[in-house]
Structures are given as structure tokens and as C-alpha cells.
Amino acid sequence: MNAPLSRREFLKASGALFVSAAGPVFFDEAFAQAAPGTKPPLSPTELDSWVAIGADGRVTAFFGKMDMGQSLDIAIAQVVADELDVAVEKVDVVMGDTALTCNQGGASGSTGIWMGAKPLRSASAEARRLLVQAASAKLGVPAEQLRVDDGVVSAVSDPSKKASYAEIIGGRYFNHKVEWNKQTGNPMDIKVQAKVKSPSEYRVVGKSYTRRDLPGKVYRTEKYVTDVSVPKMLHARVIRPTRAACTVAGVDEKSIAKVKGARVVRDKDFVAVLAPREWDAVRASQMLKVDWNHAKSAPFPEMAQLHDHIRKAPVVKREEGTKKGDLDAAFKSAARVVEAEYEWPFQSHASMGPACAVADVRADGVTVWSGSQKPHYVQLGVARLLGLPEEKVHVIWMYGPGSYGRNDAGDAALDAALLSKIAGRPVRVQGMRNDGIAWDPKGPACVHRARAALDASGKVIGYEFVAKGFSRIDIQTNESDPAHSLVGMSTGIAPKPSEGFGVPVETYGFENKLLAWETIPPLLDSCSPLRTAHLRDPVGPEIHFGSEQFIDELAYAANEDPVAFRLKYVTGPRDAAVIKAAAEKAGWQPRSGTRDRTGEVLPGRGIAYAQRNGTIVAVVAEIEVEKKTGRIRAKKFTVAHDCGLIVNPEGLRYTIEGNVVHGLSRTLFEEVQFDRDRVKSVDWMTYPILDIKDAPETIEVVLVNHPEIAPTGAGEPTIRVIPAAVANAFFDATGVRLRRVPLTPERVKAALARA
User: Fold this and answer.
1) Cβ of 606: how many Cβ atoms within 10 Å?
2) For residue 330, pLDDT beyond 70
3) DSSP E strands: which ranges in 96-172?
4) Is the pTM of this model over 0.70?
5) Is the dihedral of CA 408, 410, 413, 415 positive or negative?
6) Rounded to an integer, what distance in angstroms lies between the CA atom of residue 248 and that of residue 251?
7) 427-430 and 234-239 beta bridge pairing
């Protein structure tokens, strides 16, 4: 914790340090004669960069991603254990350390198992092949006549002829090349000579294993990034502008003279205070007098006018994700046209604690401790910010207060690196609560326009859905370029905005169909507290809040049950199976637009479905609406989930449940408050999130397993269908549509009053 470890030092400490090995032809002899200290460099082309066998036979897997509570570490251990034929308990997983793991992109896009496990699986299969080959030479038995049980290779005909992995290679290197696809990040993969196992051969993949991080988190023995302390470390607080679009006119350093050891650091519009004690840094940050140059005009619209601003704003970029048929002709011939608009606000990550990072910049290299979900990109960003080679920066990933997108963790890491360079000592940057909500990158606000053409029989003959909003990549998804960080922009690096949004992902087979997105200019080009970036399932919940609610509206317009309507139009067999599974498990009864809605508490059910990167999810939400208070109470969610091969059912259920709770919070509570020149959401009062009294009473999960299909993601798909399912249940309960998130008590009461 207190000092960076080299890869060699880590392997020595873990018992997995190897000496060299020659090629596989004289494997056993090579191990015996190898000299120590010839570890090949960290590279995707080296088998040793992916897997190691310790002197005690334990296996270490080097995983270039990290876990945010989805049980990735145990799932990776299962994959490795199955390919190597060892017990899961004997597999340790190192995650996210840039000195020990290859850049697999960190956590993003629910790719942990979908993409991240692939090279580990191949590497483990190749290691097994080499170990069996070496055992063949050692035992004098052909490889095809050997079997492996819990890391012991033995002859099928004579089990007394055996050799353990520890005996064959324990504490030494493979020194074996693998073929790399020359890609970094999520797509990184390798090819090997070995053939990976088929699902029918799995022993532990598909079984439930408990998460390894739970005891440390429950009993608070797990070390978080906030716990890092190094000798001579200074504490820092970064001073953000009181209002957006401000520059620094001057700083009165004498205003903190009474705070012992405190000093001011300024680089253009970047201002921070340093002190030996954290409380003194907090005091200094509160006492420091900064003279700000305020913008001549306020950069933001009135909050009440946000969605009108989006409607009227010029389009920077437009893309049509799906375009088929003759939409104009369909609408001209329509017996009925249905139209609707849906609105989504800015939302904050609102991580349970503001970001923290520690940086130690020395002449011989830089070490950064960070809670970012993309440590390898923090490494690159710090290197670029400081003008250093990438290999001079070592980033150690640690658990932080939250993640799921581009939150404030990357900013804290780059802040700490610059401050450490200036101070010449290690620096710990810790944000305050208002920093974490007011200044983190935001999920983009948007408006969705939907219209459909129905013929006289109620059949949908034309369908159009256009999403318009702020780019989801105005700030990029990672911290690799300082131009996308607050410290970079405030020290004069020009921002580099990008354009991107998205369209619904489903298989509705409307013959005339257009799905498109449009982005608009940011409200403020540089150092904006409303800069937009990835938030869990980037733009998925907001898009499908509109599209799946509109599908419901079409079902009622056609006088059809919402489940039957979806099954009528989806073209994917797996999609239909998931919708049926959710409906059947929930005991779905056909719905109609007219029903008895008397009483003070109104029950309702709603369904929504979507795809995400190959994963298919459908959810039935059951709610109660309290007419007097306007409160929506979540009673039960039934989720059917198809992500191909299931590696760890227990971990998958946890992940789905987390999606439901997070999605419900964003549906019912979360909205960034702002005025013309600042964000007003600075704490849990001004940015409320779901607490335990509003959590669902029951979450039931139906796991649809397809062992024949490679696993796809689970960290994000379920969240995208929660808002629409709740909104559809609200309509079922009340007969009223709520087309704007969050569905607050005030909006509920106003909508019911209007109705």
C-alpha cells in the first residue's frame, strides 16, 4: 500500500515468481536449468503476462479490467480454473494494475466477461497445453493419455504416474509467445495453439460462487483509495469556480496565512491548496479568497426551459441507425398517426463519496493510486499531462466510492499528478461532497420524438423515433487525454468535443422504420459543470424510456395487450423468449386502457424490453401509486435476462439486482438542479437518490442460459428497461402518461390533477 511494487516484486511476494523457461520441446529440462531474473516484459504477446503458476501450485491470472461489484474477479477465476483444471479456490485474480496487467480497457460497456475473459480463457488453455506437454516428457506418457485433476497431471492408465503443476513449472516462467490481435482496450485478444473447452466440458463455469470482495467490504477490512497514505504526503483541495464560465483574476494567498503549513498552487485557472493535514487543507480551501472573472452572459438556459432549448438547438451531427421502407408513404396512407415526446434531465453519477486519488511524482517515475474504472487510461492521461513516457507512470487501481462511467475519479487522478509534480511530494486529492455532484461529468439531457402510422386494422405501418440531446461523449469515456479533464482545460488545453448518442436497440419488424439521433452544441465549451459523458448504460435508459413507453402507447392505440403487441412485432426468437419468460414469471394478465382506478392507492403493471450488445432483457414492474402523496412505491420487478453463457449465476443475479435499484433511483429521484450559471445540486438534499424505504420489495430474476452462445454483458443491460417499465406501470395504474423523468411526487400529483 505504501510503496509501488514492480511486477517482479509482486510475483516474489505472491509466491508466483518464475525463472526462465525455454520453448516447449525440452520443457522440463529448460525449467531445471533456467536462470532467475529473465522475466519477459509485460506484453499481450507473452503468456506470462496473462497467467502464472506459483511455487505452491496456486494460479495467478492477470486481468486488465477491474470489478465494480459485479463479481468479475470470481467469474474470471472460474474461467481460468476450468481451462487449467484447477480448483477455483486456487486461482487469484490481479485486476487493473498497469504494471501487472495488459490494457484491456478497464470497466466499460459490460465487457468484463464478454470481452475481458476471452484472452484469459485462451491463455489458460495454452498454459494447460504446455503443462501437459511437459508432463508427457517427464512421465514418458503420450499427452493424449494424460488427464488433469486439480492441477495434477496423471496417466489415465496408471494414476501413480503423476506430476503437479507446481512440480512442472512452479515459480518459473513459461517464456512462451502468443499471437496478439494488435488492439488495446476492450477488443484486446490473443490466439493460441490450444483449443479451449466446449461448454459440455466445464466443471465450474455455470456454477454459483460467492463474491470474494464481500467480507472486506462488510467488515471494512478492504482498503479503498481513500485509505492510501504514503510518507511525506500532502493533502489537497482543488478550488472550483463559484459559477460556470469563470476565470481567475487573482488569488489572495495571505488569506490562508493562519493555516499552518498551507500553501496555494495556481496554474492559469487551476487553483488548489496543499497542507500536511487534511483538515487544514479543508480549512484553507474554505478560507482562500479567489477573485473570479465572471462571464458577461450566463451560459445556461433557465432549468425550466432546458428541453425547449434542446428542441430549438441546432443539430451538430445526425446519424440514422435504421432506415428502411418508405416512411413518407406510410404516413400519408395512415388511418391514424400517434405522436409523443419524452424528456430526460441531466443526471449525476452521485457516487457515494467524492473522488480521491494519490500521486507520487518522482524523477524516476510516477505512481498513482486511483479508483477510476480505467486505470490504464489514467496512466496515459497522466503521462501526457506531465510530458512523460507512458511506461514511466504506474497506476494502481483500488476500490473507490463508485464508478459506472466517466465520473470524477479521473479528474482527481490528474489533479493529484499535477500537484505532486509542482509540490515535489506525494499529494492526496480528496473532493468534497459538492465537488462530487456539482462537477462530475453528467449523463446528457435529451428529448425523444416518436411517431407511428397505423392502418385501419391497427397495424403499425410506419415508425419513427429520433433522439436529440447533448453528446454522450462531449467528454470522452476515459481520462487518456488531459483535454477531457478539468485540470487540462483549466490550465489552457483546448477541449476536444466528440459527437455521439444512440438509438433504441430492439427487433421490432416494422416494415417502414427510421431510428435516428441528433446531437446539439454543449452549453459551455470548457470547464463546464454540465459537461456530458458516459453514465451507466450511456443513453440507454433515456432512449428506452421513450421508445418502450411509445411502444406501450401504440399497443393501447391498437387496443392490444402490451405483451401481446411486443410479441406480435419482435423478429428475434431470443427476444420473444425473454419477453414471454418475464411475463410468465410475473403472472402477467392482459391489460387494457380502461379499468377501475378508484381508491387512494392504485396498483399497476408495466413491461419493457430491449437489447444491449447481444444481451436481451425484459422486465415487468409492479408498482403502487399513492394519489394523495404522489409517491410511486416499487413493489416487485420480474427480470428475464439472456446474456448467452452464464458463468456465475449468483454473481449475475447480484448484478441484475443492482441494475434494478440504480435504474429505479434514476427514474424516480435523480435530476441535476441548475440555474443560469451554476449547478445547484451539491448534496443529497439537492440531488436525492433512492434510499432503503424506496427500494423494491421483491426482485425476481429468470436467467435464460444459452451455453452455446458466448457470454455477453450484464453490468448495464437491465438498467435501460427500468424507467420505461415503471412509466408503463404508472399508466396502467392511473391511465395517465408521465413522459418526463424523474417521476417525482410533485409531477405525479400535477399529472393526476390535470387528468
Assistant:
1) 24
2) yes
3) 146-149, 152-155, 162-164
4) yes
5) negative
6) 8
7) parallel
